[in-house]
Structures are given as structure tokens and as C-alpha cells.
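Re: the 79-residue chain
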Amino acid sequence: MTPEFYLVLLDDDLTDELADAVFEAGFDDSSFTMRGNHAAIWICHREGELIPVVREALEQARQGGLRVSHVEMEDSAFA
């Protein structure tokens, strides 16, 4: 299984500094994009069950100093 979801960040712009922070946090297997007027990380290439993959990505973001607003799937949002 390969879950697909967004980590929607609190940042509202795709700055070079934020892109560098996303890459340095280890999200080089993901896409840096906009989602609902916020910067977001599209995660779609990680194997595993949805909940453990989401938890791992949230922890990875926190350790990298990224400020996550919420997790969002294509048609659902979770705080």
C-alpha cells in the first residue's frame, strides 16, 4: 500500500528557505506544493499503512522544524 496525503504547513508561501527546510527535513521523496493557500508537502511514494506513514511524516516534519497545520487527503482534512 502506498498512501497519498498532504502535510499542510502554516506557511503561506513557497519560499526558497522553506523549500530548503523541507528538503533538509528529509522530504526529498515528496513534492513541495501549495494546497488551500498554504505551503504543503505531497507525500505519495512511501510504502506502508496510512496511519503509521502519517505519524512518521508528522514526526519527521516536527524534527525538521516545520510547522504543520494539518494532514489532508484529496477530499478529507484531519486536524
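The first strand starts at residue 5 and ends at 9.
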